[in-house]
Design a protein that fits this description.
alpha/beta, Rossmann fold, 6-stranded parallel β-sheet, two-stranded antiparallel sheet, 19% strand, FMN reductase [NAD(P)H] activity, oxidoreductase activity, acting on NAD(P)H, quinone or similar compound as acceptor
């Protein structure tokens, strides 16, 4: 299984990044390969000028095309998603998330913005034809602690439980998805099967 993790914060260190790191650890502990991207991995001019042929954008598109699922995190800015994340998502093909399962994550200063996932992020993911967009996880800033020299980054227990539950659902859906057969395997099975008319 392959999952792409996409951090939408333009900050060098972000709470959404901490949540995504915890999610990556959880998934890798269950044998899932996770490829991580952040907005800072892309050249600002490529995003501003909508360079669809940017090497970084093309690499992201290839990984998403090969992936089974996507984790996408955004901070809340002006009661919406990060603008840089929206610009990056706009550079993906129209059906980039077809056959993909998506777990959206948002972080904000208060509970007042918890509907950002439903009203700002999910419509964009739906426009990219995501097969299934899970309920998502909303974290309040105070629930996420950055790593310090004396302690690792952490989540409040209630947030950690919600994240674990969401990841368990995400993993279960990924695990039951039908796997595409390699062309040589499909050919072999067709040759070996008995057809009658």
């Amino acid at each position: 299984m392959l999952v792409v993790s996409l951090a939408g914060s333009p900050s060098e260190r972000s709470r959404g990044g901490v949540v995504l790191e915890k999610a990556r650890e959880w998934l890798q502990g269950r044998g899932v390969e996770v490829v991580c991207y952040g907005i800072r991995d892309f050249v600002a001019e490529d995003l501003l000028h909508a360079c669809f042929d940017s090497p970084q954008v093309l690499r992201l598109r290839e990984h998403i095309a090969a992936a089974d699922g996507l984790l996408v995190a955004t901070p809340v800015y002006k009661a919406s998603i990060a603008g840089a994340l929206k610009v990056l998502l706009d550079l993906l093909p129209e059906r980039a998330l077809a056959d993909k399962v998506v777990l959206p994550i948002a972080t904000g200063g208060s509970e007042a913005h918890m509907l950002v996932v439903d009203y700002a992020l999910k419509p964009v993911l739906a426009a990219l034809k995501a097969q299934e967009v899970l309920q998502g996880v909303y974290a309040i800033d105070r629930q996420v602690s950055y790593a310090e020299p004396e302690r690792p980054a952490s989540l409040e227990p209630s947030l950690q439980r919600r994240l674990d539950d969401a990841l368990a659902q995400f993993f279960e859906i990924l695990a039951r998805r039908p796997r595409a057969l390699a062309p040589e395997t499909l050919y072999e099975r067709l040759v070996q099967s008995r057809w009658s008319i």
